[in-house]
Design brief:
There is one protein chain. With 202 residues, this protein is α+β, with helices and mostly antiparallel strands. 38% of the residues lie in helices and 31% in strands. The protein has a 7-stranded antiparallel β-sheet with strand order 1-7-6-5-4-3-2.
Length: 202
Amino acid sequence: MLKKILVGLAAVILLFVGFVATRPGTFTYQRSAVLPVSADIAFALVNDFHRWTEWSPWDGLDPQQQRTYSGPESGTGAGYHWVGNDQVGEGRMTITDSKRDEQVTIKLEFIKPFAATNDTSFTFSAAEGGTQVVWAMSGENNFISKAMCLFMDMDAMIGKDFERGLAAMKDVAVADAQKRADAEAAARNTEDAPVVAEPATP
């Protein structure tokens, strides 16, 4: 009897393993939003890792997390390393390609609680009402991630984070656009201000 149970269990495991193996070997998750600002304002929020704390959907999960920046201030070669609690883990990001006001490509490396390397990109294009920002992440599914996808909707889970990040990015971008408009208005007022001649010295 026990032997039959073990044989049946082994058969179920083999069937499960075989089914998992047929799942897609790669994945791509993406979300987009139209920000009512020019492309250069939206681009600047992504191209500089120092500004990610203003809109990243994961930044507030651990107020005590440690951040380390490396390489140039922004653009290709800029790096960012974080270490935090169980919710944020440990990892690093490196900008591998930066096309001004068009695209930022990032190598995303998770170190803890699990190791994985994915490609992330942000693309910026003109759209009615402003700039369309597309946030995408792609990578390879190993056996564990394939199995997880059978029980969890990873696109919905990660997509929700992307949507929150894009919404926060929109708020920051609008505030930046307003600051720019105010500064330009102040500069014009200064230029238009009448020049008062100083009285002649007797």
